[in-house]
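Purpose: get a first structural picture of the assembly so the mutagenesis plan has something to point at.
Setup: two entries, given in the order below. No constraints added.
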Amino acid sequence: MIKHCIRLTVPAILSILISACATSPEQSLYDEIGGHKTLNTIYGVAITRIYTDPVIGHYFKGVPKKHLRDQLVLQTCELIGGPCEYDGKPMVESHKDLNIKEREFYILVEYVQGAMRDVGLTYQQENRILKKLAPIKYETVYL
Amino acid sequence: MTNANSTTIEQDIVGAKVKLVGDGVFTQNPWAPQVAIGAQYKKNRDFDSSLSLPDGTVPLPEIGVPLLLGANDDSGTDIYLSATKLWLGTPSGYNLLTNLTARYTKANMFGLLGFGVEGNDNAKVEWEGSVAVLISPTTAMGTEFRTQTNRLGGLAEEDTVIDAFIAYFPNKSISITAAYVDLGNLPLQASSSGFYLSVNGNF
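Result (structure tokens, whole complex):
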């Protein structure tokens, strides 16, 4: 309510507050990109493409899209400073007998990158998210 | 040698490189690079290509530029160890690619001036490194340096080579690189520098 008043009376001050807020170290990457709504859109777009991919699509047979999407959103939310805690199966366990190859993992990464771009994240936001997701490679790929 | 401007020296290089350990992209804990080892066999084609003077005479038959400057051999093998790491999201959301390489070599000026010198045919360790920022998904710009053995001396004094480059790779099969390269001293051409442009395709 107070903010609303300020906006009506002193727009200049509010814009200073907003820009201070945007550069404040307290704002998480999760909030910066638009939180749950943005992540949910990103993974919605990526999963549609992943499920129809000729090389990696078969890994997801029998996995409900909604379940995977929710798990990925939850996991990413936690990794980029959102108010979430991943409570699914440990990644190592859910991937251990799949023999996923490195190049197959990279195909998935490119779909996620592509979805981040299509949804309108900046290149910098995309890279900062990838940095957090990168270590997952060694929980999923068979080496 | 008075006609150095038009002297052409060619060499063939055959190389192989294999990854030893690490993951330069997906291991994002600090200071754990991807390490590779490689070898390059280089054979200078003009080691004993005679130089002719403008009047057509050949004062020193079968003595090419490398031999004339005191090089020992027309071929050599470099062994190198290379550490590479991509720093995702650094600086300020961009990606930083860093490389440091130690090269065990006896090449003079990359081998263009032959290998080893009279009285010293041992290889020694030289260093090269690069830093590049990926400013977009398709563009990188950066700088490189490379130290040289500098054993011929005299006319063929060698400096550390440096360059600055910008590379554009619109897709996985094409890349275009533009660079400004400073080779330092070359025989009869002190402070040699120039622009470089290359287009590469993999199909």
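Chain A touches chain B at residues 117, 122-125, 127-128, 130-131, 134-135, 137-138 (CB under 8 Å).
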